[in-house]
Amino acid sequence: MRKSEDHLMPKVSVIMPIFNSERFLREAIESILTQTLRDFELIIVSEHNGDDDSDNIVLEYMKQDDRIVFLKNEKKKEFHSQSIMG
């Protein structure tokens, strides 16, 4: 849920799975955040990004925009973001 004063659920939830996505992550996040529709949440699901700086990039953006939700899979295992769509 968005951390806003009105505590209403956003109209749209955008789910972005990431895995060693450092190279294009900033561009992808910026693309979503600059959409004309403002009533959304961006749920970023980290699938064990041990080899790059993707998680830190997400944390930077979270400080700037409260529409970002970060879910982190700490263990390297078979996890597919599609499973949360169920």
Automatic annotation (TrEMBL):
Q: Name one GO molecular function term.
A: hexosyltransferase activity
The residue ranges of the Glycosyltransferase 2-like domain are 13-79
Q: Which UniProt keywords apply?
A: Transferase
Q: Which domain of life is it from?
A: Bacteria
Against InterPro entries, the record matches this protein to: Glyco_trans_2-like (IPR001173), Nucleotide-diphossugar_trans (IPR029044)
Pfam families in alphabetical order = Glycos_transf_2
SUPFAM superfamilies given for it? Nucleotide-diphospho-sugar transferases
**Family statement drawn from the similarity comment of this UniProt entry:** Belongs to the glycosyltransferase 2 family.
The record, for PANTHER family, names: GLYCOSYLTRANSFERASE, UDP-GLCNAC:BETAGAL BETA-1,3-N-ACETYLGLUCOSAMINYLTRANSFERASE-LIKE PROTEIN 1
Can you name this protein?
Answer: Glycosyltransferase
Q: Cite the source lineage.
A: Bacteria, Bacillati, Bacillota, Bacilli, Bacillales
